[in-house]
């Protein structure tokens, strides 16, 4: 146990630690991830955690992960996760003990799990990110339920209609019903699948 503690202290002193730092908003334009943000489409950075090898750039549209192979390598892999296509879930925040140097935020974005260590001195800022992700997860869960309920309602209506005697041109009726179903589902997804979470970030992140 003591060896691990001294090892972490030595690594931090030598600059080898991979504990992330929360970047000040005035320096967002200096991070590597800024080059890959869709500024032209209204995407905006709200929160950045940067370690020796990785950057986690949280925007109103999702997460941009600039994944480094190591602290000494210049090779980077840019991975994008968007709220429109992937659900945020299982968000947890682990605070620091007496001898810990870091705190940890964990969450899943779709099928990918993230665990990010952050300097414990920045606990207040990380709490803001934690609350933001929890709220995003809550809204996405509510939207998923709404879409599912709407889909089930449409299915029941179609099943009831299939048991009725239908008069007229069957080809036109089937075509009209198909178009109605497509329009119904498109409207559901449009109303209950947020692409932009600017309001949530502005509510919890104090930029």
From TrEMBL:
Origin superkingdom: Bacteria
Residue stretches making up the Bacterial Pleckstrin homology domain: 14-136
Residue span, YvbH-like oligomerisation domain: 152-207
Protein's recorded name: PH domain-containing protein
Upper taxonomic lineage: Bacteria, Bacillati, Bacillota, Clostridia, Peptostreptococcales
């Amino acid at each position: 146990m003591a060896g691990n503690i001294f090892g972490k202290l030595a690594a931090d002193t030598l600059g080898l630690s991979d504990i992330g730092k929360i970047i000040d908003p005035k320096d967002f334009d200096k991070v590597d991830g800024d080059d890959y943000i869709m500024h032209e489409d209204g995407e905006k950075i709200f929160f950045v955690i940067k370690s020796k090898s990785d950057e986690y750039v949280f925007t109103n549209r999702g997460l941009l992960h600039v994944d480094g192979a190591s602290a000494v390598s210049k090779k980077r892999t840019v991975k994008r996760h968007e709220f429109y296509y992937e659900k945020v879930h299982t968000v947890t925040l682990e605070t620091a003990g007496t001898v810990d140097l870091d705190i940890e935020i964990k969450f899943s974005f779709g099928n990918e799990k993230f665990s990010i260590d952050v300097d414990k001195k920045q606990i207040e800022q990380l709490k803001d990110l934690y609350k933001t992700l929890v709220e995003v997860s809550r809204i996405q869960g509510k939207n998923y339920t709404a879409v599912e309920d709407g889909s089930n309602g449409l299915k029941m209506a179609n099943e009831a209609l299939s048991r009725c005697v239908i008069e007229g041109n069957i080809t036109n009726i089937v075509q009209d019903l198909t178009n109605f179903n497509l329009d119904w589902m498109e409207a559901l997804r449009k109303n209950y699948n947020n692409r932009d979470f600017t309001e949530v970030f502005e509510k919890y992140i104090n930029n």
